[in-house]
Design a protein that fits this description.
By secondary structure, the chain is mostly helical. Helices cover about 75% and strands about 0% of the residues. It folds into 2 domains: about 10-55, Arc Repressor Mutant, subunit A; about 60-205, Tetracycline Repressor, domain 2, CATH 1.10.357. The model has no long low-confidence stretch (mean pLDDT about 90).
């Protein structure tokens, strides 16, 4: 007899999984994978360790689940780069979307940064299967724009790296930024204007 369809998780089960993942995001982004423990996740979520282990196989399972969810969200702004749009407008829109993600998802940015700093032991396959083909596609698109004289000549790979570095800095080094810019309540608005000017000057033919 063939097994029936998987039973849909109840509302309570869905809520508990969200609580665990949200708590784990705080713990992992603050302590890194190695420094995080199930005890910390339990305390943060308000759920017991046995309860957490009912939903996940352990710390690694929780971490990989978070990273898988993050990759989909993280790649969306790059996917949105339109081959039929104006090249400068498309790239500046990408810069603004990435900076907005630093504002909206600082914990996720730090989670991803911590994983990469450790050598991507859990994300390596996803970088190859998810990020690399998209990266190659978009760098080829940028190179076509450059070859057509629609953008100033730059190395598209280093251009994307520099966009990542300048936008994600505001999430990954948030504590340092806030100390150095004490009293400035519009840090990201200022960053948005500055990065727009910088990349516009760099890319305008």
């Amino acid at each position: 007899m063939a097994p029936g369809p998987a039973k849909k998780p109840s509302r309570i089960q869905q809520r508990n999984r969200r609580r665990i993942l949200d708590a784990a995001l705080d713990v992992f982004s603050g302590h890194g994978y190695r420094g995080a423990t199930l005890d910390q996740i339990s305390e943060e979520s308000g759920l017991s360790k046995p309860n957490i282990l009912y939903y996940f196989d352990g710390k690694k399972d929780i971490h990989v689940t978070l990273l898988n969810q993050l990759m989909a969200t993280w790649l969306d702004p790059l996917r949105e780069m339109n081959p039929d749009g104006d090249p400068l407008d498309e790239l500046l829109a990408y810069v603004h979307r990435k900076l907005e993600m630093s504002r909206a998802y600082p914990r996720e940015s730090r989670l991803f940064a911590n994983e990469i700093l450790q050598g991507a032991p859990r994300m390596g396959p996803h970088l190859l299967s998810g990020l690399k083909p998209l990266f190659d596609e978009k760098t080829a698109l940028i190179q076509r724009w450059i070859d057509a004289g629609r953008l100033a000549p730059v190395d598209p790979r280093h251009l994307i790296f520099s966009i990542w570095a300048t936008t994600q800095h505001y999430a990954d080094f948030d504590a340092q930024v806030r100390v150095l810019m004490t009293g400035d309540k519009a840090i990201l608005q200022g960053a948005d204007a500055y990065l727009d000017t910088m990349f516009r000057k760099l890319l305008t033919p």
